[in-house]
Amino acid sequence: MNQYRADIDGIRAIAVSLVLVFHAGFSFLPGGFIGVDVFFVISGYLITDNLLQAMRAGSFSLLDFYDRRVRRILPALLVVIAATLGAGFLILAPGAYAVLGRSAAFAALGISNFFFFRNTGYFDGAAEAMPLLHTWSLAVEEQFYLAWPLVLYGAYRGARRWPRLLPLVVALVVGLSFALAAQKVAEGAKSAFYLPLGRAWELALGGALVLARDRLARLPGFVAQGLKLAGLGLIIAPALLLTAASPFPGLNALAPVLGAALLLMPTRGPTLGARLLALPPLPFIGRISYSLYLWHWPVLVFARQYQNGDPLGTGEALGALAASVLLAWLSWRFVEQPFRVRRFAARKVVLAGSAACLLMAALSFGIYRADGISGRVSPQLEDLGSLARMWAWPCPQQVSLDGGPSVCVAGADWASAKTRGVIWGDSHAEHLMHLLDVAGRKTGTAVALLRICPAIFSEDGLRRKPVGLPPECERTYRATLAMLKANPQ
């Protein structure tokens, strides 16, 4: 059995806190997303340690390994997916709920990273509206652990004949995966972010730390003290300096990954770094960190939905995080903890877990196939988000301004209106016309739509026009500006 290390829970607490602060929108930790990379190293270290202990004891079993993974990962994950679908049913419009249903199906099957890889970028605006986006990292881990036990077992058996085979294989996984990630990041490919081949080196580096543990434990105390403090700095610095625009993972992930490895490094005696990491409330936050990671993102996404998509204020963000902590504690106490104790045979647990995932995936995909259960929303309300309805709006009147081509006018009658105006732009301007028509009729205002190219109001703007702007736009700009100057009323 492994001896409990409070400092590891402290490292978990730092990792999840970085992620929460970043996701809540606080600007002082623009690189807080590196907390996920710290989690990868911790996971690789603990899982590899357990696997090698079982192999050395002659008790290694893939079935037992997946039994532990099912009991550790699935209960809380499935509860969060179910709760998110329930909240989405009450909050989201049919289109958004259909997307949530599809992503939930992928999350239940442990392949949500592929869904988000193909459908969004992690830092773009669309991603921020997806309540299960954060499950990509769980999917990466579980895909890694489909292969890692077999790789380790093969290398461990081969090491009886070639003693250096095991560390060589682990080093190859670290090196090749890191090289692939660095190459993909340099090419601008997001596969390094979402897919397991670009992340395997972070998990495998945790495994390499297990192999080097005995040598590291013999380091002089003052060296170990310095390395622990350096590890803390290697995590905090990129959290402060990196941003969503920084190329990642690749080279920029080296610092937090190495920092996590240094903090995990075993020592002969307690160090200052380990003592700091064991200070309350860090171990408590570390113990609930898995549930906290699961709950925080859906809570933040739905809080932003309540704000009509606007960023959360400081008080609102803190309130959402406080709610996440409460939900995480309840999940840890009443969902995670009961499943930690083995009550059934490993085969039954794995089969039951697989069946639960398939059932959740089927229900979720059913939501997608049912168009987000559109019947729960009245036709009038659904029309508000209908693109077809928006573009089908008929123009109520046409007028010619200054002898030019006829243009659409919304609101009051142009000839008798108390106030006249124009709205100039492309389709972004046109989509406002229905609203302006209703408002204009009430206020005696007529608004003419100059639907051409995006509005540019000066010669300087024309000189700095966007690349690829059609030549006819420049001619239209000049004619429109001349017409407006001639008709200031």
Summary, kept brief:
This protein is mostly helical.
Give your account of this protein's structure.
The chain is mostly helical. The protein folds into two domains: 6-376, no CATH class; 387-486, no CATH class. The protein contains 23 helices and four strands. It has helices spanning 6-23, 35-56, 62-91, 94-108, 112-119, 136-158, 165-186, 191-194, 200-211, 213-217, 221-241, 254-264, 272-277, 282-287, 289-306, 314-340, 346-369, 379-383, 387-391, 427-430, 433-443, 459-463, 471-486, and strands spanning 397-400, 406-411, 419-425, 445-451. A four-stranded mixed beta sheet has the order 1-2-4-3. Helix 4 packs antiparallel against helix 17 (346-369) and helix 11 (221-241) packs antiparallel against helix 12. The chain is elongated and about 95 Å long. The protein starts with 5 loop residues before the first helix and ends with a helix.
Give descriptors for this structure.
2 domains; 4 strands; four-stranded mixed β-sheet; single chain; mainly alpha; 5% strand; 65% helix; 489 residues; 23 helices
Q: What are the low-pLDDT stretches, counting only 5+ consecutive residues below 50?
A: none
Broad shape: elongated
Order of helices and strands: HHHHHHHHHHHHHHHHHHHEEEHHEHH
Strand order of the largest sheet: 1-2-4-3
Number of strands: 4
Describe the sheet with the most strands: 4 strands, mixed
How many discrete domains? 2
Helix count, per DSSP? 23
State the helical fraction. Answer: 55-70%
Q: Please state the structural category.
A: mainly alpha
Q: What percentage of the residues does DSSP assign to strands (E)?
A: under 5%
> How far is the first residue's CA from the last residue's CA?
84 Å
Q: Average pLDDT across residues?
A: 89
Alpha carbon gyration radius: 29 Å
